[in-house]
Every structure is written in C-alpha cells, then in structure tokens.
Amino acid sequence: MKSLRNHLSLVVALLSILFSLQTFIIVDRSINAYKNNLSNNYSLVAVSQKILNANIIKNQHKLIKEIVLLSPDKVIKKLNSGINKKNIELLKLSLPKFYKLVLVHYPSPTEVNNLTKSLLRDTSVIKVETFSKSHDTTYKLLLLFKTVISVFAFSIGIVTILLISKELKIWQFKHTERMSIMGLFGAPTWLSSAVLFRLALVDALIASAFSFVIFSYISATSWVAEELSNIGISVVVFDPIFDFGVMLGVALVLSTLLATFIVISHKEEV
Amino acid sequence: MDKVIVADNLSLSYSKDETIINKVSFSINSGSFVFITGASGSGKSTLLKSLYGALKPQEGSLVVAGVELKGVTKSKLNLLRKHTGIVFQDYKLVKEWTIEKNIMLPLIIGGYDKTIQQNQVDTLLKHVRLKHQAGKYPQELSGGEQQRVAMARALSHNPVLILADEPTGNLDDYSSQLIWNLLEGANTDLKSTVIVVTHHIPESMGIDYKHFHIEYGSIHEVS
Known about the structure:
The structure holds two protein chains of two kinds. Chain A is an alpha+beta fold.
C-alpha cells in the first residue's frame, strides 16, 4: 500500500501527459489524412489555346503532380445537331484545350494564387479555374482545426509544466530528508539519489505500460474506425512500436528530468 | 598518542555577523572518550557539526582524522563520514525505511557484503534490545527506541570516530543507561574515539574521559 502510494502520484501525472500527447497525435494524423483526402479530390482546370507540354509545365511548377488533357467530345456531342463531321473536326481544332491539373498536396490560397499567376504568364493559357470559393472554405476549416489543435498542444504543455512542478515539490519534500541523511553518512550523490532515479524509471515504465494498454484497447474497438470512415479517412490510432516508443521516451525524459532537478536543487542540511 | 582532532584558531558561525565559536584551539587523542558541555546556545552542537563537515570553519583550521575540513572536497568529506558514526539529537532516521534498513545504512554506503550487513544488524538489534521491532518503521517506535536505533546505526560500521549530540536528552533511565553502555563499549572494545555533547555527564561512567566546556565562544578543558 505504502509502495503503491509512492508510485501513484507521478504515474497519474505521467499518464495524463501521455494520454493528452497520444490524443494530439491521433487528431494530427486525422487532419493530415483528411488533408490528403482533399488533395486527391482537388484539382485546377487550365484553359489554353495551344497544346501544353506536360513535362515543361511540371518542371516549372513543382506543385503540379499530373496534367491531364480533358476531351472536348462531351461538349461537342451536346452541340451535335445538324453539324457535319468535317465541321465538327474544324470545331474541335478551334476549341481551346482544357487541362486538369492534379496537385502534389492540398494547397493554401496563396499557393493557388501564385500558381494561377505563374500559369497565366504563359500567353497561350487564357484561364485557370481554381474553384476558389469551395477551396477557401475548406482550407479555412482545416486551418481552424490546426489552430484548435495547436492551442490544445500548448495547453498540454502548460498543464505538463504545472503537473511536473507540483510533482517536483512533492518529491523534494519526500526525498530531500533521506538524501540528506545518507549524505551525512558519506553516501555519494549517485547512491543517495539512486532511489529517486529508480522510482522515476519504474514510474515511467508503469505509466507507459498503462497508456499502451488503454490505446491498444481504443485502437481495437470498431467504434473509432467507424467514426473515422464516416469522414472518409483511415488512420493508425495507435502504432504499438512507434507510438509506444514515443510515449516511453517522453515518460522517461520527464521523470528523469524531475529526478535530476531534485538532485541539483538538493542542499545539505546544516 | 595520535591526534584524531586538531583545531587551531577555529572560528565557526552561521552568518558573518555572529561568531558562535571564536578562535579556539584544542586537540583530541585517538581512542579517547570526550564530553563537551555548555549552556544551551553556547555552541556545543555547532562544534559537533563542524566535526562531521556540516559546517565549514570560518577561520582557522580543523583537522579530523587527517582531513582538513576547511575547503574539503566532497569526496574527501564522504570518505571521512564513512568512518564516522553520528548520533543526532533529532535521531534523523529515514521514515520510509524499516529499523533494520536504517541500521544498515552505513554498511550499505560502505559497500559491505549482504551477509555481513545482516549479521551486524542482528547483533546490534540485540544490543539495543529491539530485535522484535526490526521490521517496524521509525514512527512506530517511542523516542527512546528511536534513539537506540540511531545509536545502533552509528555503531554498525565500527567507526573510528563517534559523534553524539545529546544522545540521552529526554530519554528514560533504561534507554539512557543502554546508550551510555553502548558508547562505553564502542570506546573500550572497538577503540573508537567518542565525542559526546551533553548537558550532564552521567555519574556512573565506568571509564576515563576528558571534559571540555564551552562558554562565550571559547572552549576549555575541565580537569
């Protein structure tokens, strides 16, 4: 019971930090996945009087992943009322060329503007359709999500500092006396602080193991996958190797820092 | 005879404004039993603290077991403390450790073999009549019992120097007698130098001892 109490305070603090961190990672992954999804469904349309050289355009504009020439057949079919084959061929030749521009990633409004301006510098390009209204709305929504997540991450940082500084005071109170007594009998610093570092290490392992179990369970539940597929994305909720590594690393760094601060700030009793 | 403590023009203070011990010189032979007396606030405990390096000399020099404590390095101080047994007025037992582990502390620090540690602790627990309390924590014991634990801890590593600050203050006759017997035993059997800060020298002392008295920041030997 006594031993459990010794561990509980830091384990709870670390658990809340790890839980917040993993939640942030999941939300960030979801936003990125959603952004990729949007990127796949978004493209510009360029109208040119001449045939464009796809390779030259792609070299000039790194944002462009693919250029697809759109066939005018559908439009001509609608006009095909009493026009003979020869005239249709002439019409085809006189019609401007329509290109679908697939982009490398989902662009910001500035990137869209720059690309449009750059394309229009080519005198043969007469128009670039960006579908800016719907693009801007979606982009602003994404930006809002990103801001919310950044605020959330910042709040986690503040809470982490508060939790750790509170823990620092508790640990200082709990361990200073023992360290002083050991020092009075000639214990070197590494020995008098060994208990502290062992406790820090064990607590970091316990907190990481708990987080591992919680997030493994969450990632195994179908509810989360269903919710994500409802918005058309699929995200790795918990990577048992990478995410656990990050969690363990964060927990170890924080608890070791805490122990180090106590050792550094420890002054011998007079 | 070897000198275990040599103080030369030693001054001690907690702040620059107030000197507690003022330019005193004295020496203590190895293997002797010494009482240091004086009124409350005279500087007895301050002097004792300086002997285990918790308070550095403000002026003069203080050599304990061959180690000059003015400007002493941490590693040298640790080495000196490893060979010193200290009994504190407020016991200074580790609350989260059992009685057994508290007594074991100097042996753990000294890197003794686990079997030696256990044998020594068992012997000392018998000496201080606390064998049946071995697994308890300090706060579960009475003041007298805690002081006996502190005494056992100070003796566990057979130190060359034992420093005791009012080891029998507020103790019942039984615990007091037990502690005096242990200190006498350490002096006669282990040949440890024993320095005791106290208000009263027990009348029943069965060995020769030296007596220093501190008054107005000075120390003098009482014959």
